[in-house]
Amino acid sequence: MTCVRASLVALGTALGSILLLTPPALPAASAREALVIGSGTYTALPPLPACLLSAHAVAAALRGLGFHVTEREDVSSGGADAAIGEFATQLATAPGAAAFVYSCGYATAFNDRPFLLPVSARITRPADVLTQGVLAKSLTDVLARGGTGPSVVAMDAVPMPEAPAALHLDALTQGSLPDGLGLVAASQAKPPDAPTPLAAALVANLKGPEVQVASLLDAVQQQVGANRSVTLSALRPPVVPGYLAGAPPPPPPPAQATAAPVAAATPPVSAPSAAMPADELMTDSDRQRAQTALARLGYYDGRIDGIFGPDSRAAIRRYQHELGADMSGRLTAAQAGRLVGGL
Predict the structure, then answer these.
(1) Which SS3 state, helix, strand or coil, does residue 96 take?
(2) Strand pairing partners for 106?
(3) What is the pLDDT along the chain (343 residues), one digit of tens a residue?
(4) Domain co-membership, 240 together with 294
(5) Distant-in-sequence, close-in-space partners of 124: CB < 8 Å, separation ≥ 6
(6) CA distances to 11, 31, 34 from 197, in Å
(7) Sign of the CA dihedral running 109, 225, 286, 324
């Protein structure tokens, strides 16, 4: 009996040692990852308190949606690189995750390429940005490399004082980008000491339970575009629709037919689409027909004026989303025919 008791004690001691040596299980990687950078306290440039307020507001909205947020403020050039590297590591542990990147701070351009300026930047000649700036494209590249799912890059760029105002942010929409990526960039010369219009629009629309990338950008475009003090410098809707939060319910299963099959019938013929030209060839009358059809289907509630403004383009993208087509906001001839034909 004494031997048995001694053996049990030895076994318990061994198991305890194993448990102590075994590291605790790590939590599962988040399905939503975000990087937020706000630069406001500059060494050689006027302060930008709006960028710090904007970054905090956007980060809080993203956390409310369940994002794991890598948030940094007043970063140096090395600090920006480290934040992007940490974000890339998070993405690597969560393949296919929804992702969001927001930055706010001074920016400039060199050789038609936009650069973001960390707080340590001292730009005395244009070429200094090559060693002291952060290439804005690095924020889209990290998503392209990370194998993310639905994603957004949003940038608030303030032109550097006494430098050319052209930031060439539209260059960010060019080249190979992930199909699920949506991008928006805005510039404002002197933002007030409050969250920027872009940040305010993002916060207002980053609310659950469902947040779709294309719908988010449509809403931001309309709200920021209405502010005359801000220039919407770049906008790129996703090629493939996706959700940052939530998802639409699956469609109901098709009803099973109960009638007896009809013998030797000719194949059914689909209703023909109405004859319509492609977007760029439409007359005012054609555009009015398209707007009327969009309104009838519930995609559009604006004026039937034959002008394809932001509201009409957003309605067209919603219609294209239902078709499962590229949400370009511009109708092909086939899409316009289906739309006007009520299909």
Answers:
(1) coil
(2) 158
(3) 444 444 444 544 444 443 344 444 333 445 899 999 999 999 999 999 999 999 999 999 999 999 999 999 999 988 998 999 999 999 988 888 999 999 999 999 999 899 999 999 999 998 998 889 999 999 999 998 877 899 999 999 999 988 777 899 999 998 889 999 999 999 998 888 999 999 999 999 999 789 999 999 999 999 998 998 999 999 999 999 899 998 755 555 565 555 445 444 444 444 455 788 988 888 988 999 999 988 888 788 888 988 988 788 888 888 887 788 877 788 998 999 889 887 6
(4) no
(5) none
(6) 66, 28, 20
(7) positive
| Residue (of 52, 189, 196, 192) closest to 119 by Cα position | 52
**Cα gap 240→180, rounded to integer Å:** 5
Contact predicate 297/290, CB 8 Å: no
Select from 197, 229, 245 the last residue of a domain: 245
Tell me how far apart the alpha carbons of residues 258 and 175 are, in angstroms, rounded to a whole number. 52
Which CA distances in Å does 87 have to 61, 91, 291?
18, 6, 43
Residues 172 and 284 placed together within one structural domain of the fold: no
Examine residue 268 and state whether it is found in any structural domain, yes or no: no
Residue 265 resides in a domain? no
Q: Which of 245, 265, 294 is the last residue of a domain?
A: 245
Interatomic CA distance for residues 233 and 132, integer angstroms: 23
Q: Which is nearest to 236 in space by CA: 141, 171, 158? A: 171
Same domain, 101 and 196: yes
190 shares a domain with 336: no
Please check whether residues 49 and 109 belong to one and the same domain.
Answer: yes
Chain-centroid distance of CA 33 in Å reads 12
Domain shared by 36 and 120, yes or no: yes
Distances (CA, A) of 342 to 191, 269, 335, 336: 46, 16, 11, 10
Which residue segment(s) compose the domain that 286 sits in? 279-340
Question: Structurally, how many domains does the chain consist of?
Answer: 2
